[in-house]
Amino acid sequence: MSTAAKPPLPGxxxxxxxxxxxxxxxxxxxxGSPAARTDVLAHLKWVLATGRQVAERRLFESGKGTDxxxxxxxxxxxxxxxxYDFALNDVFRVNNLSSGERLALVAVGGYGRATxxxxxxxxxxxxxxxxxxxxGEQLAEYILYMLWDLxxxxxxxxxxxxxxxxxxxxxxxISTSILDARYIYGEKSLFKELxxxxxxxVVSGSASSFIQAKLAERDARHKRxxxxxxxxxxxxxxxxxxxxxxxxxxxxxxYFYRVSNRAELVKKGVFSRAEYNLxxxxxxxxxxxxxxxxxxxxxxxxxxxxxxxRDLADRLDYKGHAGLKGVERFMKHYFLIAKDVGDLTRIFCxxxxxxxxxxxxxxxxxxxxxPFNRRTQKIRxxxxxxxxxxxxxxxxxxxxxxxxxxxxxxFWFADxxxxxxxxxxxxxxxxxxxxxxxSLRNDPEANRLFVEILTSHKNPGLNLRRxxxxxxxxxxxxxxxxxxxxxQFNMYHHFTVDEHLIRSVDVLSSxxxxxxxxxxxxxxxxxxxxxxxRRILYVALFLHDIAKGRPEDHSIAGAAVAEKLCPRLGLxxxxxxxxxxxxxxxxxxxxxxxxxxxxxxxxxxxxxxxxQTLFRLKLLVILTVCDIRAVGPGVWNGxxxxxxxxxxxxxxxxxxxxxxxxxxxxxxxxxxxxxAERLSHWPRAARTRHVSxxxxxxxxxxxxxxxxxxxxxxxxxxAADQKLATEVRTSSFQAITEITVLAPDxxxxxxxxxxxxxxxxxxxxxxxxxxxxxGWALDTIFINREFTDDGDELRRAxxxxxxxxDVLSGKTYLPDILxxxxxxxxxxKAFSIQPAVAIKNTLSNRFSVIxxxxxxxxxILSEITGALSDLTLDIRSAHITTFGEKVVxxxxxxDLTGQKITDxxxxxxxxxxxxxxxxxxxxxxxxxxxxAGLAKSTPGASGSV
Length: 945
Prior knowledge:
Layout: H1 14-28, H2 34-62, H3 65-91, E1 104-108, H4 109-112, E2 122-128, H5 134-149, E3 154-160, H6 161-168, H7 172-179, E4 182-186, H8 188-203, H9 207-225, H10 243-257, H11 264-267, H12 273-297, H13 306-315, H14 326-354, E5 360-361, E6 369-370, E7 376-379, E8 382-388, E9 391-394, H15 399-402, H16 405-417, E10 420-421, H17 423-431, H18 438-441, H19 444-454, H20 460-469, H21 472-476, H22 478-481, H23 497-512, H24 521-526, H25 534-543, H26 554-568, H27 573-584, H28 588-595, H29 601-611, H30 614-629, H31 638-655, H32 661-678, H33 684-692, H34 696-701, H35 704-719, E11 725-731, E12 736-744, H36 749-759, E13 764-771, E14 776-784, H37 790-809, H38 814-821, E15 836-840, E16 848-855, H39 860-870, E17 873-883, E18 886-895, H40 904-918, E19 942-944
Parallel strand pairs: 2-3, 9-10
Antiparallel strand pairs: 1-2, 1-4, 5-6, 7-8, 8-9, 11-12, 12-14, 13-14, 13-19, 15-16, 16-18, 17-18
Helix pairs in contact: 1-2, 1-3, 2-3, 3-5, 3-12, 6-7, 6-8, 9-10, 12-13, 12-14, 13-14, 14-17, 16-19, 16-20, 20-23, 23-25, 23-30, 25-27, 26-27, 28-31, 29-31, 30-31, 32-33, 36-37, 36-38, 36-39, 39-40
Keywords: Hydrolase, Magnesium, Multifunctional enzyme, Nucleotidyltransferase, Repeat, Transferase
GO molecular function: [protein-PII] uridylyltransferase activity; phosphoric diester hydrolase activity
Domain ACT: 738-819, 849-925
């Protein structure tokens, strides 16, 4: 670790601080007086602030993170020493300490490593000769209170050497903290005694148990933080690939190899000089980011959230380049560093095995035990690899140089025989990446083996991830290398692009193995029919986002990549064309399903003309399911699945030649007849009246079970003469909650319902909007589920339902509750999206389609629908989609005469009003209070969100 130079400003070193504090004591005549303490505290605050300013300035100038952390640690050392001197000499006025009163001030934990971020905790250990004395207690108390009054977070313990040793034997946390112990001030002989006894009585002979404890602690931390290092809002301290992983390596090194600094790991043969330099590089970068993060936020923030990523990129001087924003280049660098930390971990573990550590669990998921009684055996079909305790290992150091195809072949054998990877083998792979040249990329055998790994019936995602971690994927497929560690600066994608691609392959494999049949019934049913074409799906999924980060549309650019790459991988011309088409259209099905009216004939006809064949439709729906599911936790839900199944069914009918208007009428008639049969227990007149009041769209869009439920709900409400009623239902499968509203129709009804939901903290994910022939609105709003327990979620939904009723009935004045409850999320402030409004008359034969894109915020749906009503537009169907911070809403509308919006000047006016709403600068139009008695019917308005 480099040593920071002395601060360029005077007064923040130990001697200067001590001199000034003594002068303060002299001026007051008593260092222990309240007035003296006030002046002392004021000066120390100046010292702390000045020292941090110097550290921050140097961080900007040099970019050296470890130097910054060292300087902040040195600053705290100077303050602690000066406070100790001041307390001893000017407060308690003790000239000569007895042997029983002497104590040592020792830094432990992160402070003990002499590296501190601006907001880091300070861990102090007061080491006593044998037991506490009144003076020792007073000194410790004075120092602690002074540090606390400086707003520092101080952890502390006061123990004798005996107590430190005894507790270290039973508590791994205490043992670890003392492992990092560093002398600051006081009786140095006590610190040396602690070091010697800790080494002889605690460390000696206990390496195995210590390492097991540290690795178990690490595994638990990774599980808590997420099992992957490629989450887009990583924790720089405790996340996978963060500073704590490097610290864990050094803890184990200090304990096992008995080294005192990192450079000694080269002498011990643990790291090569290049690997040691990589360790230093990773640590310096992570410390730079962490210090900037603390300076930026003014607190001990460890999560690199969206709200700070752009500012961090600016502070670290990342600029946009080659299609990537500056913030995306910064985060890509971060993830590459996190990957390097993983590489160092594997190298370190390999060396531990060579040193014969007994029964140490794996350092990560690649390994099983460290070490073990070596049991090797041959692998069928090769002499280049062996099985080493159920893990594939190299037969000799020339395995890859002798035949570079072995780099790919090793992963193929591991997949075939279900083997984990020996760290020696992975280490040699990493050191042999230069062998992956054009000749290997074009080698037919290497490409055949790779496709077999990708399309394996076992666990293709696992081995692709191992290839990626080892750096093989990016070398073997250079286009994939361009998206390794690439993040997209948005709230929708939870992982880096390379991790998303591998996860999408994981999802397909899980569906194929029957593990997700309940969640994905359609894809599970279709896959067996496509068995002979399965490699088309696997290759398409592996490549579908491979062109992300380029200036051109990634779907089009990705298709071009596939057209060049697939023949190299051994795919036929026909397979290549299909893969390229799937990549080109990989977003189209989800877009249509979520943002188009699936009951509109033109929607189905247009999408059928896009896919053209039933074969393509089947492939595309499976790819779409896997793509959405792999975006991140909570992105997929049953509601999206239902939309995809509906679209698939309608287009399947169209492609098989059975989609005609007369058929649609026949289907509606059959649906009407089925509903009547399900209501056979009703009186004939009531049954006939109810069935006849629904339009065809309702009967063709809503599931028959829901139709029956709605019928009972409407009958009960109308029998009780309720002009307004709500019904709630939870759905754990769809991961959404339904709130059905029955009210007299009104042009602003959807706007008011949306506002009421937002004011209650509910985020609308979709809706079905229908009116009956006699003027009732039957709207079902789908909101994101908040609780996993159905009981809790049902109670929440009922509260929201009551909020809707209160607003619609006039009991609650909506603007009042909106002003207090609808505040934008802090995270959203990090994003800016250029508002876009398009009016299209070619997407529907009967309606104009308004497409809206903009930054999400609470209540925006209410504002948009209210503006549409103010523009005298009749909303026939609305479709709400949220992609993280971005809303993509589609509205099927007509004017009040039922005609499309064709006048250019009116279209211009509509676009301007809606863009102003999206920018948050629309005129403050009061929200109309809608009551049951004032509702206005809009015949035939029906559809779905």
